[in-house]
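Hello,

I think I submitted the FE2/S2 (inorganic) cluster job twice by accident. Can you confirm which output corresponds to this input? Input:
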Amino acid sequence: MWVGVRYAGSEGLVEPAPLAVIFGSPDDGRHCNRGRHVPDPATFLRDQWYAAALSSDISDTPFARTICDEEIVFFRTSGGQVAALEDRCAHRHAPLSLGAVTGDHIQCGYHGLVFGADGICIRVPGQDQAPPQACVRAYPVVERDGWVWLWIGDPAKADPATVPALPFFGVSEWAGFQKYFHVKAGCQLFVDNLLDLSHVAFTHAASIGAASAADADAEVEVTVEADGVRGKRVLQGVEPGPFIQAWGGFEGLIERHSSYVWRPPSVMEICSRFSDTGKRITIMVINPITPETATTAHFWIGWARDFNLDDTADTEKAVEQNTQVILEDVRIIEGQQLRMTKYPDTPAIPIKADKAVNAVHRFLDRLHLGQPSDQHGDKSSAAAE
Ligand code: FES
Ligand SMILES: [Fe+2]
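Support: Only one job matched these inputs. Its output is below.
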């Protein structure tokens, strides 16, 4: 039975989708559509852990959330474990989330059938026994590092050891926060955003970027590994942008060193180090992103700093500042989704900065096709721009 595993230690990655390509316009004589395979965005990778909620979201009140187009109700049992059940009563399909949690069970708000955390109906009001076929699907679920992770796929394949370790929250070495955003755009669009940090100089010129860094000579490296894609981007001698200038107390130009790992299906972990000759600060940005539907997503930011650890006012300010940063992205990404929905067959045109995006898309392609990851790796590095 899969019910509320509290977990404290492991690692594990798994894999991503490419761009169809068109060069030139149809009437300039250079029309070329390379037509790479693009997975149907409505097809969600199965046999994967998806971030589903913050631990603090789940209580003895039913919590409804759609993950990969599957309606799920979460609740916390009297023992503190998280349960995740199909949000559809076995009797006549009422959402169980409209019912109530009673100890270790959830009771449908329509005719009162009671289900355990294993999805089995244990009581039908007015009759002696519950029909044996009265059950709903129970999902494997794990709590770790402040998030609740849900397994979409075959429960027999769910291994808690493969839930990503993101140990930056509730520990003494880091200070920060975790926050949820609902996004009206497909999950992969936000993953792509995080994989291409060249957008920072433009999208975030008023917050963490600086327009003056747009054409800076970036050192870029992307490495495809068995369990995910890693990369780094280094900029020397650039303006820090207003938020980073304030966080680090920088007075002049800085070095920006960002390294990241993407883990399948859609978890980003970015380590950013900002430094000048006298000072360096480190910020971890953790972004699990989970499909709600093909065109909407659940997005979390986990943000942790290694400086001013005891300053709660700093944390409150960081929540406000990072909310601005994320909304700067959301504005762009939701606009992208609107255009992509209206013009679904129009391919994208790749540029050099898409290197990591393309690597992740190819990784996802292999997963969608049921192929093993590229075990020998696909290492490369190059100066960009
Ligand atoms: S629909 Fe749930 S008890 Fe009838
Ligand atoms: Fe961004």
